[in-house]
Write a structure and sequence with these properties.
The structure holds 2 protein chains of 2 kinds. By secondary structure, chain A is of the alpha/beta class. Chain A contains 6 helices and 7 strands. In chain A, strand 4, helix 4 and strand 5 form a beta-alpha-beta unit. The longest helix of chain A has 24 residues. Classes of the chains: A alpha/beta, B mainly alpha.
Amino acid sequence: MRRLLSPVSIVVVIAVVALLGLLVYGVRSTSPDASIETALASGARPRAPALELPRLDGRGEASLSDFRGQVLVVNYWASWCDPCRAESPLLERWHRRLADRGGTVVGVDVLDVTSDARAFVREFGLTYPMLRDADGTTQKDFGVAAYPETIVLDRSGRIAALRRGPVDEEFMRREVARLLEERA
Amino acid sequence: MRRPTGVLRAAALALVMLALGPASALAVTCPQTSVADLEDEVMCPVCKTPLGLAQEAPQADRERAFILERVERCQSKGAIKVALAAEFGDEVLAVPETEGFDLAAYLVPAIALIAALGACALAVGRWRRSGLAPAVGSSAGTGSTSGPADGAAGPGAEASARLARDLERYDL
């Protein structure tokens, strides 16, 4: 018993506990935030985090508040991401549909080479607003962990739906079309 | 007449050397670095690993292409790192941040070093104490057995007495 309570044993125990604590903190702080999913699952619509980023074309900055009153489809993508290529034509089609009905798609290019991203936009003829998150800072606020991911905001700037992975026609009809009928 | 010609030749040669000097120096130092050289010093921001370890990630491939493009333009390692940071943010540099969990990268080694130094000091202190105790005992014994004439007890004294007795027994 005396041996267990020796100063060396106490120091070793404290060091092990501290390292375990650090490990738990590390895992918790680096794992993606699932609070949006939790809120949506309970039927709530959490307020979207503020997002202000430079435009991909280099012409100033834009924020989500610039689109207040519109239904927003915020799409996180990168030019090196193959599923992003697959869903881009669908997003462009929906952007054109939404434009007349008070909605828009907003692309957020993440962790990408600027020239590659611009070439991607040209290749797919994307006309919706494109922002650039060079170091992926804003994706943490939305719990984005992979690409592509899409967050749908209602006219009041609250998150109404989320898709971790590429969107399809069915998701857009189910989650976006119904929001167009709502008022701010 | 010969002397001025020699001077002119030397001057012309010096001019040629000066003109060729920078070009040859450039040829020697270009490319200044390589993709392999940078791979372990920058991160793949999506994979969260050093670029060298990210073998099959598309983002890592694009990053390598970005670096190669600049290597071929003869940019230095520092300039390429600056370009990478401008493109992907400071997290691309394999340097932990000074806040949040990354702070542990600085704190843990510092604490471990302090703990190791403390443990070493403790161990040296103990070793010195345990080493001194028998030494003090033996030196005290030696002092008391400085000669058989003292008649003091101890292994040294006993051996000396036995040796003296043996020597007396033999008539040499």
